[in-house]
Design goal:
disordered N terminus, 13% strand, 9 strands, polysaccharide degradation, globular, Beta-xylanase
Length: 389
C-alpha cells in the first residue's frame, strides 16, 4: 500500500472528522437506546475501555480512523486506543539504520486530537517469524551481545523520545515465552545476548526513557484448558518470577484475551473447566505485585453453531463469564478490544470457520450494529469491583 504524505493525512483527518457516516451506517452505528458508552461504564470502577485500530488511506472501508463511521464508533465507546501493527518493527524498521513512523504518526495525531489516551504496542515482538527480514539474518559481528543491546536501546529511546507523554502505557515485550516449552523463545536476538538479558535491557531502557509510562509484559496464554495452555502459563509465571528477582521494572501482565469457543459444548461447561485453574494463575500474578491489563479482547467462535442468534448468545455469555472473573480483581485495569467491528476482525482470515462465515467476536457486527457481546461487556463493567477500594 502506498503511503500518503503526512500533510495529506492531516488534511484527510480534518475531512473525516466532519464527514457523515456512509449511507445506512449512521443509524446502525448509533448508541444502543438507553445505554451508556462502554468508556463511561468502565470509568465507574476506575478503569478504561478501548480498542485497537489500524492506519488507513482516507476513504478505505476498513477499521481505521480514516473511515468516518468507524471513527465515530471509537469516539463514542473508547477512552484509549492502541495500534494493531503500526508500531511493530516490521512496520517501523525497514532496515537496521532506518525508521518509518508515518503510519503510527497519523494514528497519534488522530488520537491526541480527539482526546484519546494511547498505548504503545509493541516495542519488541519476540517471535522470530514476525521480525523484519533484515533482522532475522542480521550479523551482530564480533561482539554480538554488545551490538544487539545497542540496537535495542536505540530503538526504545527513539520511540519513547519521539512520542513522550503521548503514550502512557507500553507493551514493552510481546510473546517472549514459547507456548510449547514454556522457555524464552530462541531467536537471533536471544542468541546474541541471552533471553533474560534481552528482556531486562528492554524494560530498563523503557523505564529510563518513559518514567511516566506503565510497562507491560504482554502474552496470549489463555484460560481454556489444554497441555499447551498449561505449559505456556507455567512459563509466563517463571518469567514474571524472574523479573521480580532481578528487579526488572515490569508493572503489569498484559493478557491478550483472544478467548476461544473451540469445543462443541455448553458455555457453562467450558467455563467450569477454566475458571478454577485460571483464578489460581491470576492469584499468583497479582501475588507477585503485578497489575493486570486485558490488551486484545475478542472471541474466537470456531466451534459455535452456524445459527447467528445462537452463536452471538454463546459468544456473549462466554465473554461475560471471562470478564466477570477478570474484573473481580482490583488489580485489573484497562480493557481493550482487538477491534470493534466484525468486518475488520483478524480472526476470520487467520482461523476460518468451516462455514466460511465472518467471525462474530467483536462488539459490533459488520453493519455497525451493537451485538449481545457489546451488552455483555457493558454488564460486566456495571458489575465490576472497584479499583478504588
Amino acid at each position: 500500500m502506498q503511503l500518503t504524505r503526512r500533510e495529506g493525512i492531516a488534511s484527510a483527518l480534518a475531512l473525516a472528522a466532519t464527514a457523515c457516516a456512509p449511507a445506512g451506517l449512521a443509524s446502525a452505528g448509533a448508541e444502543p437506546a438507553g445505554a451508556s458508552s462502554l468508556k463511561a461504564l468502565a470509568a465507574r470502577s476506575g478503569r478504561r475501555f478501548g480498542s485497537a485500530l489500524a492506519w488507513g488511506n482516507p476513504g478505505e472501508d476498513r477499521g481505521s480512523f480514516a473511515n468516518p463511521a468507524y471513527a465515530a464508533l471509537l469516539e463514542r465507546e473508547c477512552a484509549v486506543l492502541v495500534p494493531e501493527n503500526e508500531l511493530k518493527w516490521a512496520w517501523t524498521r525497514p532496515s537496521a539504520r532506518e525508521y518509518d513512523f508515518r503510519q503510527f504518526d497519523a494514528i497519534v495525531d488522530y488520537a491526541t486530537s480527539k482526546g484519546f489516551a494511547l498505548r504503545g504496542h509493541t516495542l519488541f515482538w519476540a517471535p522470530e517469524k514476525w521480525f523484519p527480514k533484515w533482522l532475522v539474518g542480521h550479523d551482530f559481528g564480533a561482539r554480538p551481545a554488545m551490538t544487539a543491546e545497542a540496537m535495542l536501546v536505540e530503538h526504545v529511546r527513539t520511540v519513547c523520545r519521539r512520542y513522550g507523554t503521548k503514550i502512557g502505557s507500553y507493551d514493552v515485550v510481546n510473546e517472549a515465552v514459547e507456548p510449547e516449552t514454556g522457555a524464552i523463545r530462541d531467536t537471533v536476538m536471544t542468541r546474541a545476548m541471552g533471553g533474560e538479558a534481552m528482556l531486562d535491557v528492554m524494560f530498563r531502557t523503557a523505564r529510563a526513557e518513559a518514567p511516566h509510562a506503565q510497562l507491560i509484559y504482554n502474552d496470549y496464554m489463555s484460560w481454556e484448558r489444554g497441555t499447551e495452555d498449561e505449559t505456556h502459563i507455567t512459563g509466563v509465571l517463571k518469567l514474571l518470577e524472574g523479573f521480580r528477582k532481578r528487579g526488572t521494572p515490569v508493572d503489569a501482565l498484559g493478557i491478550q484475551s483472544h478467548i476461544r469457543l473451540l469445543k462443541k459444548a455448553p458455555v457453562a461447561e467450558i467455563v467450569r473447566e477454566s475458571e478454577g485453574p485460571w483464578r489460581r494463575f491470576l492469584d499468583a500474578v497479582v501475588g507477585m505485585g503485578f497489575d493486570l491489563v486485558i490488551t486484545e479482547l475478542d472471541v474466537n467462535d470456531q466451534q459455535a453453531p452456524d445459527d447467528i442468534a445462537v452463536r452471538d448468545r454463546m459468544v456473549a455469555d462466554y465473554a461475560r463469564a471471562y470478564l466477570d472473573v477478570m474484573l473481580s480483581y482490583r488489580q485489573m485495569g484497562d480493557v481493550l478490544a482487538w477491534g470493534m467491528v466484525d468486518k475488520y476482525n483478524w480472526l476470520t482470515g487467520f482461523d476460518p470457520r468451516a462455514d466460511k462465515s465472518i467471525k462474530r467476536g467483536t462488539p459490533y457486527d459488520s453493519a455497525f450494529r451493537a451485538k449481545p457481546l457489546r451488552e455483555a461487556i457493558a454488564a460486566a463493567f456495571e458489575n465490576a469491583s472497584s479499583r478504588h477500594g
